[in-house]
Design a protein that fits this description.
Layout lengths: L3 E10 L2 E11 L4 E5 L6 H9 L6 E6 L2 E2 L10 E4 L11 H11 L4 H15 L14 H13 L5 E5 L7 H18 L3 E5 L2 H7 L2 E6 L2 E6 L1 H6 L4 H6 L6 E10 L2 E5 L5 E3 L3 H7 L6 E6 L6 E2 L8 E10 L4 E7 L2 E7 L11 E4 L7 E4 L9
Parallel strand pairs: 3-8, 3-9, 6-7, 7-8
Antiparallel strand pairs: 1-2, 1-4, 4-5, 9-10, 11-12, 11-14, 12-13, 14-20, 15-19, 16-17, 16-19, 17-18
Helix pairs in contact: 2-3, 2-4, 3-4
Length: 367
């Protein structure tokens, strides 16, 4: 396997910037996911690594080679596509064997590599079947196997699970991660599903508008988002983001927002971050798990709100409330919670889990 380095990689279509100066280092044996909404540039980036799209500028290195001018077949990569791209008239064995046959691998070696891949993926019993006789999950395994037999330096995967139903996707996420760890493979994986990115990856590259927004471990991008886009994209439900102004009461910073939102900040961490704010306008970020429902308004910083809607999901109930005209999502594990639309309740923000962003740049304030 090999390291992959992107250095200031860009792709322009006329005046349209599809990928804007993306720099990434994917270490040997890492599972790295490019994640973001449709049109963010993640698939274009993957296709440039594969050699299917020509770079406008920048450098891509795989292992020790700069591959900008190499054909896809010379880059020592293997791709797994969204639609699997299996030959319908060939058996599973023939589909697995085909890339080896095209590379001129000797028959005995072909058989050994196909047999090994089938054993690893648990599809030995399917080798004489044709794709139409396979389930979605089995076809996905064959597509991975066809990439595996080539023993490439890097696996590139473009939303390979998107055609599977929800239950099978969960199962195949785990299988792909186990396979990657067993092989010690370098994998670059594209998805729009942030849950896939969080559960499978060693590192996550969050993209938007052709630009890299943040690159780090799943824990880093979830708990320490670099800006409001990352904060709002990673997590389900997404992080609540509320505009607020900074006021000072007896020297204590107070966040004043929509409706009756008024919070005196005691946290030294937050106070230090506010010192770096270029002006008095910030965006407050907080996840639903850090917004408890309080029984009355007596506690300090309790915020009176109106319930907009309630979503029971079994062990967790999501409570969407209005603070003025701002919608905020809270949650509770109290199975006895019986709030209804239009009811007035109180919530509170846990200061230990508040994030502050500059309102103008949307970047996270630093200590």
């Amino acid at each position: 396997m090999a390291e992959v380095i992107l250095d200031q990689v860009s792709k322009l279509y006329g005046s349209v910037v599809a990928v804007d100066r993306v720099s990434l280092t994917i270490r040997n044996n890492e599972f790295v996911t490019l994640v973001g909404p449709s049109g963010c540039g993640k698939t274009t980036t993957l296709n440039m690594i594969a050699g299917l799209i020509e770079l406008t500028s920048g450098t891509i290195k795989i292992g020790t080679k700069i591959v900008n001018d190499l054909d896809p077949k010379d880059r020592d990569i293997a791709m797994v596509f969204q639609n699997y791209a299996l030959y319908p008239h060939k058996t599973v064995y023939q589909n697995l064997e085909f890339p080896l046959r095209m590379r001129g691998v000797e028959k005995t070696a072909r058989h050994a590599q196909v047999t090994r891949a089938a054993e690893i993926l648990g599809i030995t019993a399917l080798l004489e079947r044709k794709p139409r006789q396979l389930s979605g999950g089995q076809q996905q395994r064959v597509a991975v196997g066809r990439a595996l037999v080539r023993d490439p330096a890097v696996f590139l995967m473009d939303e390979p699970l998107s055609n599977l139903d929800a239950k099978l996707r969960v199962h195949m996420r785990a299988e792909l991660k186990v396979l990657q760890e067993r092989l010690g493979a370098t994998v670059i994986y594209v998805t729009h599903d942030q849950l896939e990115a969080m559960t499978m990856s060693d590192k996550v590259a969050v993209m938007n508008g052709g630009r890299l927004q943040q690159y780090g471990t799943p824990d880093e991008v979830f708990h320490h988002p670099a800006n409001t886009f990352v904060a709002g994209f990673m997590g389900s439900p997404p992080m609540n983001l509320l505009p607020a102004n900074i006021e000072y009461e007896a020297g204590v910073p107070t966040l004043v927002g929509a409706g009756d939102m008024r919070m005196r900040l005691k946290s030294e961490r937050l106070q230090a971050q506010l010192q770096t704010a270029p002006n008095r306008s910030v965006i407050v970020g907080i996840r639903h798990t850090a917004i408890p429902i309080v029984t009355n308004g007596a506690s300090e910083n309790a915020i009176p709100v109106e319930i907009y809607t309630v979503e029971p999901t079994g062990d967790t109930t999501f409570v969407h409330v209005r603070i003025g005209e701002q919608l905020v999502t809270s949650s509770t594990n109290d199975l006895q919670f019986s709030g209804r639309t239009g009811e007035r309740i109180h919530i509170q923000f846990d200061e230990n889990h508040i994030h502050l962003f500059d309102a103008e740049t949307t970047q996270a304030l630093q200590n």
